[in-house]
Design a protein that fits this description.
Length: 272
């Protein structure tokens, strides 16, 4: 792939390939391969569904993207250390979604913060989460205090989630971005309209005077599909079936053992 000047990289299922002291990390081998791209003048920027604080900061430092990154699927964007986008979901829409979640007995997570903002009335799920020292709260404990940049809706049943997805997609698609994610497509991610990775990546590269067609996005699941607004969209080998159908290229490497770095080297650097 010639003329790629900027690569956006997902974290989970794409870049993270190591564990240190029980925490997800990015291997030294992966970091070195990413640095090879930077040494050739290609900018590499994290574009994740994760929240912008907590352990995400450690991962951003690992990969050298602390001052330039997209979080919450593009709802929150930092460029050169400055927040250039910070969008939240309309409060009335949040309340409507939560009412529908309660009716169908699903679970929801606010702002990707599963430890402090996971809500469910499912006793079995609460029991499972307790093993990870996560204390899920009841629906009735939800208090609208801070802006909500991203909602995640989850259930053990992909069929149940699919039905809910279809219902809210029909009702809210003009006001919200709604995508499937998760290994089994049993999770829905919701952000404000035009808060997708692809939309925010175009904002990011335009500020640098780089054309969208001169950028690439590498990911593994459906919240990466909006990366098709760029020049090239690459799926890791472990990518979801639906995401692979959207991707321009499917890597021969999965995320393990520096798969991201190997993907960059094979499909971008060797083609320059």
């Amino acid at each position: 792939m010639k003329n790629i000047k900027l690569i956006f990289i997902d974290l989970d299922g794409t870049t993270i390939d190591s564990i240190k002291n029980g925490k997800k990390r990015i291997s030294l081998k992966n970091r070195k391969l990413v640095d090879e791209a930077r040494q050739k003048g290609i900018k590499v920027v994290v574009s994740t569904g994760r929240k912008p604080d907590g352990h995400t900061k450690v991962l951003l430092k690992d990969i050298g993207s602390e001052s330039d990154f997209l979080a919450w699927n593009g709802s929150y964007v930092v460029q050169n250390g400055i927040v250039i986008k910070n969008e939240s979901i309309n409060s009335d829409l949040v309340k409507k979604i939560i009412k529908l979640v309660e009716k169908t007995n699903l679970s929801f997570i606010i702002n990707s913060d599963i430890k402090n903002n996971c809500f469910t009335n499912n006793k079995f799920l609460k029991f499972i989460l307790s093993f990870s020292k996560i204390k899920a709260k009841k629906y009735s404990e939800f208090i609208f205090e801070k802006p909500i940049s991203k909602m995640m809706i989850w259930d053990f049943s992909p069929r149940k989630i699919k039905k809910f997805y279809e219902n809210i997609k029909n009702e809210f698609s003009n006001d919200l971005e709604i995508v499937f994610t998760g290994k089994r497509n049993n999770m829905i991610e919701i952000t404000s309209k035009n808060c997708t990775k692809g939309d925010s990546e175009i904002l990011f590269c335009s500020n640098l005077g780089i054309k969208p067609e001169e950028c690439a996005h590498i990911g593994d699941t459906e919240n990466d599909m909006s990366g098709n607004k760029l020049g090239v969209l690459i799926s890791m080998k472990n990518g979801s079936k639906r995401f692979k159908k959207t991707a321009d290229v499917i890597s021969k490497y999965n995320y393990k053992n520096a798969g991201l770095g190997k993907t960059i080297k094979k499909y971008i650097l060797k083609c320059k």
